[in-house]
Amino acid sequence: VNFTNTNSTEIKSKNYADNICYKYNGTEFIPATDKLISQYEKDECRQHLIFYAVYPYIADLTPNYTFSIKENQTSHHDYTTSDLSFQKIETEDLSVNFSFTHLLGRMDIKLVGDGSPSLTLKTSVKLINVYNSVDLNLNATTGEQLVSTNESKGDVVCNDANDLFNRKQRHFQAIIAPQQISNETKLQVTVGSLTAECYFPDELQAIS
């Protein structure tokens, strides 16, 4: 966004760069197109620029956008791309470093047993009836919410974040919308052919 020309921090239809995709190559993020953001020419006078960065990349992203987490987060890709993150930087430089802020909540679940049944068996964890979507407002000003949890609910299969050969303890994680977990939410655990469900206590919170 060119603040000098528009006198506004809001995302407009004509910017120096519109929704440029960057991809991680194992070392750093590089542009998926031939044109770097730094190659966009500025006017002769020094410009006040505002960079908006959003992860994961969303091709049809608009300033007001509804973001939904992945229902199945067992793969690393689906887990990480559920982790909506954001950074806004105002600067006069075209070279900037981003330090993203995580906008959603993360649920950490540790299963601890006595070894029977062994947790080395195929084990899965599902959150049942959690809020799974947020409304994103990239033009939010001071005092306004950047993200707000909407009314959408569903089930989320968690990511296995632990040593598969640990017989007595396993660690699972899931990205979910910021929310207070009520006793309407259940935890479903499957170990081998055995499945058990339990309710969460009141006052448990998942916040960004």
Strand content: 35-45%
Mean pLDDT: 81
Helix count equals 2
What form results from the Cα inertia axes? elongated
The H-and-E topology, N to C, reads as HEEEEHEEEEEEEEEEEEE
- Within the largest sheet, what's the order of strands? 11-8-15-16
- Total beta strands: 17
Low-confidence stretches: none
DSSP helix fraction = under 10%
Alpha-beta content class: mainly beta
Described by strand count, sense and barrel closure, the largest sheet is: 4 strands, antiparallel
| CA distance, first residue to last residue | 27 Å
Radius of gyration: 21 Å
Could you explain how this protein is built, in words?
This protein is mainly beta and 208 residues long. Helix content is 4%, strand content 41%. It is built from two helices and 17 strands. The strands form six sheets. It has a four-stranded antiparallel β-sheet with strand order 11-8-15-16, with no helix packed on it. The chain has a three-stranded antiparallel β-sheet with strand order 3-5-6, with no helix packed on it. A three-stranded antiparallel β-sheet has the order 4-9-10, with no helix packed on it. A hairpin with an 8-residue loop joins strand 12 (159-160) and strand 13. The model has no long low-confidence stretch (mean pLDDT 81).
Give the topology, please.
Blueprint: H1 3-6, E1 22-24, E2 29-31, E3 49-55, E4 64-68, H2 76-80, E5 85-91, E6 101-102, E7 105-112, E8 123-131, E9 133-137, E10 147-149, E11 153-157, E12 159-160, E13 169-176, E14 179-181, E15 186-191, E16 194-199, E17 204-206
Antiparallel strand pairs: 1-2, 3-5, 4-9, 5-6, 7-13, 8-11, 8-15, 9-10, 12-13, 14-17, 15-16
